[in-house]
Specification:
Length: 374
């Protein structure tokens, strides 16, 4: 009877671990399946509605970018990394003692047969994975709700899990010698750091680069003048999302395809058109962008509005201190650009009130006054 109870508890424990492995590793394929089945048709309807409002006829389709076949490799990549990692974590007690000296687990201390360092490294890898998985899961759920779960999100999640684990190991080797004096409880602090590294690997990588910047002198490209942060309305999250599709600065945004942005990002047509208009103007004027904004010219579309005759442009340039011939040339180029003209018309389409924007209870002009006042 006692043996039966022990075997039962062992089996229940084993089954419970398998269930946890299945749930965590199955998170990636489950979310991809949900997005393809439920969210893609909804995104297709929103895309077609935006095209109708702008009067655009396009052969592009949302299903081209979010086809089920495009998810197979990235989801499999993230799934396998997660499956191997969580399986080790859940069943570590069965084979941890079999680990011997390893270049990965002991780094520069390889050959010292340091069991304590091996176990420390295994703990660091575990918490770095958990931190990376929690962050990735939150990001995937948020983008699933926003109809923005592109296939490359799963590649990013898998790479984050690997990168976070490596950076956490390096950090543990780096601070190991000084930890006893810097932390009240080294082991507890190290696991907390490992989990933070899993959630923010890029920040800790930047810390390591700055720490050894004496030995590293990477080439830098000054793109501050055309930074996406120069575009009003673009936050850190917006910038990171645009970076995912290859838009790293204002010039990339100014030349991007409107329909492709509507498909590949969760942003509305009004927002994208405003950003593109700002980016195009920024590419023209660069340092003078704030001066034009001070008089209400935020985008190239504002050059179409109002009285922008030569005398008016001269008054604007005198008021804000911009070179007058330059402003005249920019104005002429904007008006002569067929692409900007088309975008201006599209912006008029999406900004035009629809039936749903009109209040239903506004009285008709010919309605009797007695009925108007109830």
């Amino acid at each position: 009877m006692e043996n039966f109870s022990i075997d039962l508890l062992f089996n229940l424990g084993f089954i419970s671990k398998l269930i946890i492995v299945f749930i965590i590793s199955g998170f990636f394929p489950f979310t991809a399946f949900s997005f393809i089945r439920i969210m893609v048709p909804r995104k297709e309807k929103e895309f077609n509605k935006a095209l109708d409002e702008m009067g655009i006829s396009s052969t592009r389709s949302v299903k081209d970018s979010y086809a089920p076949g495009r998810y197979f490799l990235p989801v499999s990549f993230a799934f396998l990394i997660c499956l191997l990692s969580i399986s080790y974590i859940m069943f570590a007690g069965n084979f941890t003692n079999e680990f011997k000296d390893s270049l990965l687990l002991t780094g520069a201390f390889f050959g010292d047969e340091n069991k304590a360092l091996i176990f420390q490294s295994l703990s660091v890898l575990t918490y770095a994975f958990l931190g990376g998985f929690i962050w990735s899961a939150q990001n995937i759920i948020r983008r699933l709700i926003a109809n923005d779960l592109a296939p490359n999100v799963y590649y990013s999640a898998g790479i984050r899990l690997v990168l976070a684990s490596i950076i956490a190991l390096v950090m543990s080797f780096l601070i190991g010698a000084e930890a006893q004096t810097n932390f009240l409880n080294f082991k507890a602090s190290l696991t907390a750091i490992a989990m933070l590294v899993g959630m923010f690997p890029e920040r800790f990588l930047s810390y390591l680069i700055n720490l050894f910047k004496t030995y590293i002198n990477p080439d830098t490209l000054n793109t501050d003048l055309l930074s996406l942060y120069k575009i009003e309305g673009i936050s850190l999250q917006h910038k990171e999302r645009l970076n995912e599709i290859g838009i790293d600065n204002a010039q990339n945004l100014a030349t991007a395809s409107l329909t492709q942005l509507l498909i590949d990002t969760p942003f509305e047509a009004r927002q994208i058109l405003d950003w593109i208009g700002q980016a195009k103007l920024l590419c023209y004027v660069k340092d003078d962008i704030d001066k034009l904004r001070s008089v209400g010219i935020r985008t190239v579309f504002d050059l179409f509005k109002g009285n922008k005759r030569p005398n008016a442009l001269q008054e604007i340039s005198d008021a804000v201190g911009i070179n007058s011939p330059l402003l005249h040339v920019i104005h002429e180029q904007v008006l002569a650009d067929p692409g900007i003209n088309a975008l201006y018309r599209f912006q008029g389409g999406v900004n035009k009130p629809t039936n749903s924007d009109v209040i239903d209870d506004i009285p008709e002009a010919n309605e009797p006054i007695s009925e108007r006042i109830g």
